[in-house]
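Figure-free illustration: sequence to structure, shown twice.
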Amino acid sequence: MDYDVLVVGAGPAGSGAARSSAMNGAKTLMVDKKKEIGTPVQCGEVIGLDLVKRSGMRIPPQAKHLALRAALAGAAVQADTKLLSAKVEGGNVVGCVLNHQGDEVEITPKVIVAADGVHSTMSKVMGAEFFSPQDVARGVEFELVAKRDVPECMHIFIEEEIGLGYGWIIPKGKRRANVGLGLVGVNASRRSFLEDWITGHPVVSQYFDVDKVLEVKIGDAPVPGFLGGPVKGNVLFCGDAAGQTLAFVGEGILPSYIC
């Protein structure tokens, strides 16, 4: 099966690339290994208003909205479809094998967009090591019910016990918030570390206990600093696979989409 462009990963970066590709007339296929695009949530669920204004977008109403925009622009979109392997010749990918809902499918795209996260399958296929373990923040987040009203602002914590990472409180209402850590250089159970941090922190503990957890969200994020540029042969890396996040808040949704 032939496509001009194969986009691996239907997150913000992949969806933005697929939409742009389709709008410019390329026959485009975007795949995502998850059965439901955008789940489970692996982020703090916050975007910067300035970036919303710069991009000319309205705040998306739900996680699949950006993938919907790609589909409406003419891209083919397939969830539950995983990149298994790729054949590389002369530094270019000349063929890909996908697992589509249990069946193997071979395609021969002209260009691949690797938007498949910080642990990118395509980077392994290309032998491109863009991140070392110390370049990755190990994220863990609880959606918590608060003991008292939470201030209507985002808190960022830069503290020695977190290592080179950061902590956050992101309000989702008066009595509900995402509270999490991005751990860099800390080799500990991330969930236990977060529980201890919340319980012992002089500010965070004023608002939260760890006995009212509505959701646990775990994922890794790159520390920006992409090595060697985002293009390898006929593969364009973007999003978390290319380190397109803002380090001081860990925001990657709109930076990835814009890039």
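We now fold a second protein in the same way, so the two outputs can be compared directly.
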Amino acid sequence: AFAVTGLLMQDGVWIAAAAACAVGLWMSRSRSAEAAAGLVMPLAFLWATTQTWTRARRLSVVGAVLGALLVFGVVRASQIERDPTYKAAGFRQQFVMSSFRVIGTHPYFGIGPGRYFRESPNFLAPQLAWSYGSENAHNNYLQIATEAGIIGFFVYAAFFVGALGPAFRSLAHDPQDWRLLGAV
């Protein structure tokens, strides 16, 4: 009875964490994050429902699904790029170049945490400045690099990669626990 209660509590914690993440995702209004969740959740479901299959069969099915999603993404991206009324792709490139201009002027230690939005009009291309005024980098990694500099970005990357180590070790120890896959 205690083991069942413990498992239910553990599942309850996972469900509460998932609900908190869903609320945060909804509040962020980030289309990219919503798209990522829309891709990850079906793959996690597929992974969980195929646990009785052989590893090779599972990987081939998951690989086929990922391949189909990749082909769909490439086709959709090419359709968007050819659409003359869609200007966001050009804006993304301009945001990247604006971030590189910031890094070029403050390469080692960046412009400081939380300052990109305030400083962006100094670095945006004229078309972006006219359309947005002040804006974020539209790329989290570039935003971290501009605010923390190259040195700070490498420290961030070291922490990020270091945090993946325990998750992968746990997944290797218990490959049947699909929740660990979600944690990774």
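Summary for the second example: The radius of gyration is 21 Å.
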